[in-house]
Amino acid sequence: MPTPKTLRLILADQLTHSLSALAGIDVNNDVVLLAEVRSEASYVKHHKKKIIYLFSAMRHFALELKQKGYQVHYTYYDAQDNQGSLAAEVAHRKTQYGCGQVVCTFPGESRVHQDMLSWSAALDCPVEIRADDRFIATIEEFSTWATGKKQLRMEFFYREMRRKLNCLLHDGQPEGGKWNYDADNRAKLPKDIELPQNTQFTPDTITLEVIELVKSQFDDHFGDWEHFHYGVTRDQALTVLDTFIQERLVNFGQYQDAMMQDEPWLFHSHISFYLNSGLLTAHEVVARVEQVYYAHAQDPSQPAIPLNSVEGFIRQVIGWREYVRGLYWFVMPDYVNKNHLNATRKLPEFFWTGKTKMNCLAQCIKDTKEHAYAHHIQRLMVLGNFALLTGLSPEEVNEWYLIVYGDAYEWVELPNVSGMVLYADGGVLASKPYAASGAYINKMSNYCKHCEYKVTVKTGEGACPFNYLYWDFLHRHRDALSSNHRMGMIYRTMDKMAPEKLDAAIADAHTFLISLDE
Ligand code: FAD
Ligand code: DLZ
Ligand code: SF4
Fold it and tell me: Are residues 188 and 118 located together in one domain of the fold?
């Protein structure tokens, strides 16, 4: 029997030529569908730059498929017959092209997966959901690794990934003798350091059209559309990666945790947009970095790239990224409702405007609003730390992170927010909350120099709010946290504090939290 004509769906974050949904395509017969749909573009009010990036990247990818000879149906956002949702688009195009089956790749969000599972019955035809082999670990591999373990620590999963790829290993032993060089990666940026440029592209006519669409249709969404400079094709994404490897990887490790006023890009790679939407794959990113590391190590005419930079970067990609993806599918759907610390405070308005006297927050929100990007420590130790210490509701904080970052999809956003930032999962992801006082922010940035508050003042007039919020947080959650052996030392320090100092911190925190609610 001949194979029926197949409708092959490609989602906005599946822009990869080797995507499993395209495997075995009959180019003369099958139809590839990409659809810009209202339901996906506005189920949360995504940052304008995230929509510009995705729609433009989808349009460019569709053109590349057509150039390869594929039959592509591209549903434009403002097309008269746009059906408004993925399910309705699939149903409509299946009938339009007379397809007898649908093939998709496993999506990145549980919500979309649940929807896909209902399509076969609704369409009365087979709907095949193929594994997403762009990840290094399969969902089943993670589940096998995690099942029965008391603690799911990234470090041990990461070592499995290193072994699986035979990456930075000699006879099964880690390069340099250690698996992890994180201890070397905590330097502050020197005052006079010369910072490299981030890679920028001038928008072409396709991107300019999408910008006009977003200006008219998504005006009420968060974020600035101006100065869009991201890559929107695979070639451009490769340029971003290669420029990072040539110019910034050398310093990535030591300055990975550093932050600087008005400098969002620093020595980071800025590839998360491309990795998460499929223009780059984790396999190729890691292979290129490893290859350049060894090539430079063997060629005296090339500058050596420090192992702490290379290992640190590779750990982010095959460690953290793979780990949060595996964890997401292992713990969903319950994970979405986790709230171990019973945090219920509403998100303050300044998360949308950046209007706060706390300079570190204002800076990180400004970077986010302008670029749909902030680097990891800004997300974790400034914005996340504030959300943790002030007890913001996980639901509201998750929605904010999903909206504001151009690389945000639930599989990666939710574990980072509920697990890493808010400790809402009670320690499944992190062995202790990432709580910190102003001293950490001052150590890793120059934000405090430009702030109305004084980071060295602990309580009272002009004191840095992070200082008293920190002690108040520990005090409030003593029952939930003091039995955690990694918190033992900090509670012993707290117990040695003069009672009036702790009382003053708690009183200042209460006043601050009341003003936050107002
Ligand atoms: P680099 O610092 O250059 O790191 C290289 C790559 O490693 C990144 O591109 C990313 O793919 C990967 N990576 C690093 N850390 C993580 C991590 N914790 N989880 C998953 N991948 C990681 N990353 C997202 O891709 N999407 C998100 O929605 C997202 N939300 C986050 C929310 C919070 C609260 C926190 C603390 C982190 C979040 N991250 C998220 C992780 C990280 O902040 C971003 O991946 C990173 O800032 C992207 O910038 P970059 O490409 O310059 O990264
Ligand atoms: C995030 C997003 C946006 C803004 N728009 C679309 C869209 O129009 N069409 C589409 O296929 N996907 C879109 N996405 C991504 C989805 O919301 C969802 O996050 C991923 O497809 C999950 O894998
Ligand atoms: Fe942030 Fe406190 Fe420093 Fe101000 S003083 S920038 S609020 S850490």
Answer: no
